[in-house]
From TrEMBL:
Binding site for substrate: 112
Keywords, sorted A to Z: Carbohydrate metabolism, Oxidoreductase
GO molecular function: oxidoreductase activity, acting on the CH-OH group of donors, NAD or NADP as acceptor
Keyword Oxidoreductase on entry: yes
Designated name of the protein: NADP-dependent oxidoreductase domain-containing protein
Record-marked site positions (Lowers pKa of active site Tyr): 79
Chain ranges passing through the membrane: none
Originating organism: Ogataea philodendri
Family to which this protein belongs: Belongs to the aldo/keto reductase family.
Length: 319
């Protein structure tokens, strides 16, 4: 079983359902990636900041060596962390990613956040997270257009096939498009029934940019991080509206949440440690929600954002 494909604006088709590598523990990561490939996953959404790219690469390369899949059948994703926005550091960053993954190219490379932190050498701390040195939070004056131009250079060199942006607001995307030689192929955003972002999604898709939703299960991704808002809100996997729709279609609540996205051509990147759920999450395009069911799910919106840079250091990306 594999996922249906969605064509990007550069002509490349990518799976509508991928495997998210955020918070996958290093000790089990390689095995999980291998197992996910075995059951049919072909897109793996990683990032420099996740700290597990060496292990992702181990799983990928073992699967290729064992003949489960060919490299050209996989879509390996990473994201440029905030510390490497300066054009002098963008190529260094992607080379580091490729070295960790033990691959020759990336299929998709995003700007992770529209935030340029002070550069931190790999040997000083990697991944650096929010670390900027001994003085606390420090930023670099690097325009997004400058960073984007460096990503375009990676495509021209063949190091990356598709480039995208993540956690961008509409105004930032509009400004980026004014100078971009290569239009972003994808936008990745937090997306679940508590944060539907309908206007942004419509506008972005109208520009021919594919939308990828992360944290499709809402609070579930943040409960283990002791996120206050996550513990204060009902789990979408147990919400009565989602549960009622799941029973009507004889599917799981997780499948309803994923189908709510993919039915509107939004890519998703769930993960699971369990084989049965891995298969269920991949098998979400064989039923359709009614227009009324989609409206019911949309009505749960609270504009509730769990991943907000304002909570880090009052960084005003979404204010």
């Amino acid at each position: 079983m594999t996922s249906k494909l969605i064509k990007l604006n550069n002509g490349i088709s990518v799976p509508a359902v991928g495997f998210g590598c955020w918070k996958v523990e290093k000790s089990i990561c390689a095995d999980q990636i291998y197992e996910a490939i075995k059951v049919g996953y072909r897109l793996f959404d990683g990032a420099m900041d996740y700290g597990n790219e060496k292990e992702v690469g181990q799983g990928v390369n073992r699967a290729i060596k064992d003949g489960l899949v060919k490299r050209e059948e996989l879509f390996i994703v990473s994201k440029l962390w905030n510390s490497y926005h300066h054009p002098d550091n963008v190529k260094k960053a992607v080379k580091k990613v490729l070295d960790d993954l033990q691959l020759d190219y990336l299929d998709i490379f995003y700007i992770h956040f529209p935030i340029a932190q002070k550069f931190v050498p790999f040997e000083e701390k990697y991944p650096p997270g929010f670390y900027c040195g001994s003085n606390g939070w420090e930023f670099e004056d690097v325009p997004l257009a400058t960073t984007w131009k460096a990503l375009e250079g990676l495509v021209e060199e063949g190091l990356v096939k598709s480039i995208g942006i993540s956690n961008f607001s509409g105004a930032l995307i509009l400004d980026l498009l004014r100078s971009a030689k290569i239009k972003p192929q994808l936008l990745q955003i937090e997306h679940h029934p508590y944060l539907t972002q309908e206007k942004l999604i419509k506008w972005v898709q109208d520009q021919g940019i594919a939308v990828v939703g992360y944290s499709s299960f809402g609070p579930q991704s943040f409960v283990e991080l002791n996120h206050k808002k996550a513990t204060e809100n009902i789990s979408l996997l147990k919400h009565e509206v989602i549960d009622s729709i799941a029973k009507a279609h004889n599917v799981s609540t997780a499948q309803v949440l994923l189908r709510w996205a993919t039915q509107r051509d939004i890519l998703v990147i769930p993960k699971s440690n369990q084989r049965e759920r891995l298969i269920q999450n991949l098998d979400v395009n064989n039923f359709d929600l009614t227009e009324e069911e989609i409206k019911q799910i949309n009505s749960l919106n609270q504009d509730l954002r769990f991943n907000d840079p304002w909570t880090w250091d009052e960084i005003p990306i979404f204010v």
